[in-house]
Amino acid sequence: MSQHDRPLTPPQIAATKDENIDFSEIPELEETFWQQAELIEPDLTEQITLRVKRSVLAYFQAPGKGYQTRINRVLESYVRARSKPR
After folding, report:
1. For FRET with 9, which of 31, 35, 66, 82 sits at 20 to 30 Å CA-CA?
2. Residue 32 DSSP SS3
3. How many angstroms separate the Cα of 56 from the Cα of each of 5, 50, 51, 60, 61?
4. Residue 5 belongs to a domain
5. Which of 57, 55, 85 is nearest to 71 (CA)?
């Protein structure tokens, strides 16, 4: 943060031109990095229709925006817990 008193905000970062970015402290990646790199495909979401009780939906909607993400996180946690070897 030598040039700035505080970290840049996302809009400030987006507005920064490539030629104004200082890469001097970032080492170049060697070819071995790319030879050992592994492609990891993202686990994409899929739109579905799901029936849940009104009380369950109300619970996840109560904190506000993002209820579908919250429901998905709970389901992911359940799957991980059930997938562990016993």
Report:
1. 66
2. helix
3. 45, 12, 10, 7, 9
4. no
5. 57
pLDDT band at 52 (very low <50, low <70, confident <90, very high): very high
Q: Please indicate, yes or no, if residue 31 is contained in any of the structural domains.
A: yes
Q: What is the pLDDT at residue 76?
A: 94
| pLDDT score of 86 more than 90 | no
Contact criterion met (CB below 8 Å) for 44 and 71? no
Q: Report CA dihedral (13, 14, 18, 24) to the nearest 10 degrees.
A: 20
> DSSP secondary-structure letter at 20?
G
Q: Find the domain containing 33 and state its range.
A: 10-83
With b for 16 or more beta-carbon neighbours within 10 A and e for fewer, the 56-73 pattern comes to eeeebeeeeeeeeeebee
Q: Please give the tally of structural domains in the chain.
A: 1
Q: Is residue 3 part of a domain?
A: no
Alpha carbon distance 12, 20 (integer Å): 12
